[in-house]
Every structure is written in C-alpha cells, then in structure tokens.
Design goal:
Blueprint lengths: L1 E5 L28 H9 L8 E6 L3 H11 L4 E5 L5 H15 L6 E6 L7 H16 L3 E6 L10 E9 L2 E8 L4 H10 L2 E11 H11 L1 H6 L13 H4 L7 H6 L5 E5 L10 H7 L8 E3 L2 E4 L5 E4 L4 E4 L4 E5 L4 E5 L6 H10 L10 E4 L2 E9 L2 E8 L7 E3 L3 E9 L2 E5 L2 E5 L4 E4 L5 E4 L6 E9 L8 E4 L6
Helix pairs in contact: 1-2, 3-6
C-alpha cells in the first residue's frame, strides 16, 4: 500500500496561530509532534516509509520536507507549483506513485494532514477493511458516524446496500445549515466526510477519465521518469476543483467504510477545546494563563501572560502580533477574519513574527523606515543557504553559542559578542557546526527590506 498525505491547506479557521506560510499541519498544537508528523506516524503503522508521499504547495516545501525527513529519510515530498485544490493534486500524485511503484496497480490511501486520531489500532483495522474493497474495484471513503449536528463538515449518505465491511454510497452533500444537520443526524444514514480515500491507481484514473477528462488528459504532460518536479506550465492548466466535485460525486464505484477509531479534524478552535483536558470549571488553558472564575473557556498564550476574569464559553488566542477573542460557538467564522486580512494585504494572515525554517527560526524584533532587526536561531549542525541580497546590507552580532560565518572567500569563527558586516550583493552563509544552539542579532539596512530579496547559490534543503 502507498500513503499519500495532502499537506497543502491553509488552516484559516485556526488563525492567528495558523498562518498562510506556516499552516496548522506544521504546528504541534500542544502535542509532541506536528499534525503532519502524526499523519506520517499513522501511515507508517502499515506501510513502509519509502511508500509514504506528501504533496504540498511549493511555498511550504522546505518545512514539509524537513518535518517528513525528521520522521524518515526515505519519505518523499512533491511540490505543487500553484494551488489547484485536491483533485489535481491527487491525480498527479497517483501518476507519480504508479510510475515509481514496483506493483503494476498499487493501492493508495489518501489522507489529509490535519486530523487527530489517537486509536491507531482501530484506525489500522478500518484501513485493512477498506483495502479489501479497494482491491475489488471500489473507491473507498472513510466516514465518521456523527455524534452531533455539525455544520462545518461535509456529509456522505449511504444506501441500504451493504458490502463486505462497508456500504454503497448514495450521495455526497455539502456542509449543511443547522436544521439540515439535525435532519442528517436523525436519519442515521449520514456520515461525516473524513476526507480520507483509498483506491487502486487504475480505478481512480479510469473514473477520473470518465468524470473529469480535462484533468485526466493533462496527465500526459507529466513525465516522472525524467524528473520528480511538477512542472508549473502543465499544472497551471489544471482546473481548481476538489476531488469530491471532480470524481466522488459523479462515480458509481464509491463505497463507505465506517471509521472505527476516534477522529477530529482540528479545523477550529472549538475542536482544539474538545480534544484537550478540562479543569474543574471546563476550561482549557495552554501557555502562560492566569484566570479567576471563568467557565468553559479556551485560552491559548504563545508568549505573553493572558489574564482572564469571569468569562464563559469564550476563546482567546494570543500570538506575538495578534489576539483573537470570540465565543466558542462562533469559531467557524474565524476564517472570515483571515479572509479580510488577506484581501487587505495585511501580512498578519500570512506570517508570524517568528518564522520557522528547516535550519531553525527567526523572530522580527523591530522595524522602521530603512531598517529591520531580527533574532536568528540556528539549530545544532544546521546552516542557512549560501546567499546574497540585492537591496540590503546586514550586521550580525553573536548572542549565543559559536557561529561559523562564510563571507566571500573567508570563513569566520565567531563567539558571543563578536560581530561581522555583510555588504550588499556579498555571498554569505551562517552555520552552526556545534551541538549547541546558536543565536545572532541581525540588523538589516536598505530598501526595500523584503524576505524575497534572497539569491541562493547552495542550499542543503533543496531551495536553490
């Protein structure tokens, strides 16, 4: 079996913690591993690491690759050059897997990168049940039996025709309003759409040809025998459409298997509240929180002290540059704030003040006309790319550890308190060759001061 992880979402309903360039699947969310890493771990229960592939947007590729390879060096990552929704992503990834697989017709399990599933034994049992139906020629979807009238999920309605281990699917339906969701719950034949699918490669491609020929015909332009990169010009021709619309709603080969394990898509702050342990007053406090007499609240602090008094059914989320406050029953609407910020070109939807990179992270300390100050943290045995800048000069001061700096033809070994100047267009790199962390304070001078002002020459993370 092959596992395909869809890791390209934005996680807009978990703003301000989730941002466009560091979305929820890369976050730990008060757990030991990120959601992406947890997805990898689940798949590794029943398929070899080299059979696990993630597909993500090009802007996330370095972070996704770093997290995947921290789980296994054999894992693989594909980069969509432009976001086109799930149908083109799954179609291209299916062709990629088929071109690399030793089997003529591999079975592929497609999973989103963001659900939380703790009962791995029950999950594995469900997947094995689905595999039997997939081998019989069905496209299998995994449904979650609803426990309340949720309006934030799509639903799948089954027929009364039972299959071995599953059911024939009657229809896929969109996210309902509250009254419709109650009717679905009462009917007993509707399941939440988990977004997980399983199929033989040939079956999916045959159905894709029948239901979405525009996508299928474009697959001829992707030749993975020559390169593992997805070419922009070909992928950009793809329509932007979900796999539900493109295939699942039009196919008569869909079967549903009931997901026997726990499941939560962690798509909202209400979901984060649901999966965390509560105190005696029904509160979930994460981070530096002080409370007096609040009830049934979620308060998340990432840096500052958050003090609350007498709140009920409230969500408060603090990050370095934004604070969210809303009622718990309105958390689905957080995406509206995210969209307003995006439409107004407000970078608060896009990046944190602290930005994570494969080598560590940096935090913006202050900025003004013609200057910007950062703290750069480099993890042990990691290094920044060999690069230059066309619009800015930089001044570095070592604040922690022992840094190795490449500047032009020089190699400089700097300790705490040492400094170095980098001229405009001068090639340079910062490296940590030690077992301890390195931190430097960087002052940028110039205009414009843009993160995109980087020309890379060498990079251990494949970003050249």
């Amino acid at each position: 079996m092959y596992g395909l992880i869809l890791a390209g979402g934005s996680g807009s309903r978990l703003w301000p913690l989730s941002r466009e360039l560091y979305p929820k699947q890369l976050l730990n969310l008060n757990m030991e591993k990120s959601l992406l890493q947890a997805s990898f771990e689940r798949l590794a229960c029943f398929t070899p690491s080299e059979n696990i592939i993630a597909i993500t947007n090009a802007k996330h590729i370095s972070n996704v690759r770093y997290q995947m390879q921290s789980m296994s060096k054999k894992s693989q990552v594909l980069a969509e050059p432009v976001a086109k929704n799930t149908a083109p992503a799954i179609a291209v990834a299916t062709k990629y897997i088929k071109s690399k697989a030793k089997e003529d017709d591999p079975v592929i399990l497609v999973v989103p990168s963001d659900p939380l599933i703790k009962n791995l034994g029950a999950f594995k049992t469900t997947v094995m049940r689905g595999e039997k139906l997939a081998k019989e020629g069905y496209i299998v979807t995994f449904g979650v039996k609803p426990t309340y009238p949720e309006t934030g999920y799509g639903y799948v309605n089954i027929t009364d025709k039972q299959l071995e281990g599953g059911y024939k699917v009657k229809q896929f339906v969109e996210k309902p309003d509250s009254e419709t969701a109650k009717k679905y719950l009462d009917a007993g034949t509707y399941f939440w759409n988990s977004g997980m699918f399983m199929f033989k490669a040939s079956v999916f491609l045959e159905e894709l040809q029948r239901t979405s020929s525009e996508i299928y015909n474009l697959l001829d332009e992707f030749d993975f025998s020559k390169s593992e990169e997805i070419p922009f010009n070909s992928f950009d021709k793809m329509p932007s459409i979900s796999v539900d619309y493109a295939v699942m709603e039009k196919s008569d080969k869909i079967a549903l298997v009931k997901l026997e394990s726990d499941w939560n898509d962690l798509g909202s702050w209400q979901a984060i509240y649901d999966v965390n342990d509560k105190d005696k007053n029904g509160n979930v406090f994460i981070g530096n929180v002080m409370d007096e007499d609040s009830k049934n609240c979620l308060v998340y602090s990432s840096s500052k002290l958050v003090a609350t008094v007498g709140l009920e059914d409230t969500v408060i989320v603090e990050t370095e540059d934004a604070v969210l406050a809303c009622r718990r029953d309105n958390t689905q609407d957080v995406k509206k704030i995210y969209e307003h910020l995006r439409q107004n070109n407000d970078d608060t939807h896009k990046v944190h003040k602290t930005v994570y990179r494969p080598w560590g992270y940096y935090s913006v300390i202050s900025s003004g006309e013609g200057f910007l100050t950062k703290k750069i943290h480099v993890n042990p045995h990691q290094k920044l790319s060999l690069q230059s800048h066309n619009h800015r000069a930089e001044h570095w001061v070592v604040a922690l550890g022992n840094a190795t700096v490449i500047r032009g033809d020089e190699t400089l070994n700097l300790k705490v308190g040492d400094s170095v100047d980098i001229a405009v267009t001068e090639k340079h790199s910062l490296q940590n060759l030690t077992d301890d962390d390195v931190e430097i304070i960087e002052l940028q001078i110039g205009s414009p001061l843009l993160e995109e002002d980087i020309v890379r020459y060498e990079d251990m993370y494949g970003r050249v």
